[in-house]
Design a protein that fits this description.
There is one protein chain. By secondary structure, the chain is α+β, with helices and mostly antiparallel strands. It contains six helices and eleven strands. The protein has helices at residues 32-46, 50-61, 117-124, 157-165, 167-185, 214-228, and strands spanning 5-6, 69-74, 77-89, 98-105, 137-138, 142-143, 149-155, 187-189, 207-212, 238-242, 245-249. Strands 3, 4, 5, 6, 7 and 8 form a six-stranded mixed β-sheet that branches. A hairpin with a 5-residue loop joins strand 6 (142-143) and strand 7. Helix 1 runs antiparallel to helix 2 (50-61), helix 1 packs parallel to helix 6 and helix 4 (157-165) crosses helix 5. The radius of gyration is 23 Å and the shape is elongated. The two termini are 45 Å apart.
Amino acid sequence: MAILEVIEDNDSPSSHPFLLNKSKPDFDKLSQEEKTALLDHIASQVAHDPKLFEDMARNFLDQTTQEDFNTVEVQPQAGYVCKTQIVSSQGRYKVGTVVYINMCYASSIPAPPIASEREIEKALNADPTATYKVPLSMGEPQNDEKGSLIMSACINTQPYLRSERDLDFRLYLLELAMEYVEEIVLVSLSREFTMPQVKSVGTIPARILRLPKPSLMTAIHSEVVSKSKKEWTCQATEHTIENNQLKLVIPMPDKVYS
């Protein structure tokens, strides 16, 4: 079993990123990995509400610094392999080069947002209005002795387990991984592929990721709860008069907040 080493968040409450008036950071100082991790976590909380996601992303991107992230060492677990080939290239890899994509998993990779089956189906069908997305970490390109390209994609354990029993979901993940590969190495991949009967090809080295600290995740969750609360007012939406009696319809709140 691989060992997952996480640097603990030992910050005291006084170091909470949104409790003190810190000088306004320059968000451009964050790496692309840190930006993506932050947006993925916000999306996992509010993917059901695009407007709230937009508002929260803008708010947190304006306040977050590199101090709000932990360095995490992740050892991906081998899952299954997709074998395809390059059909066009703008980079150093030639057309016809064989490509292996190792689909791996790790519990420390951010989980996708909680979503209804209907919303997940929209993503599987490439509906442009879909909000469901599976965060994916792609490793560095590797080559075997035959010159084949090997890429290792890593996702959270939960969506990986679903892909083991749900073919459509697996195809969705493979398409997502292929799009990542195409962007990284500047190629187009054939969508005609095979699934070799092996868990992985080549070695899958550990990788270092920058992920939001627990204090930042708590702040995001608190903000979601705060913005999701709606003050209830006693107001009739319908009324009828029957037998000289006035009947009112007053919607009640789904939850009562203290």
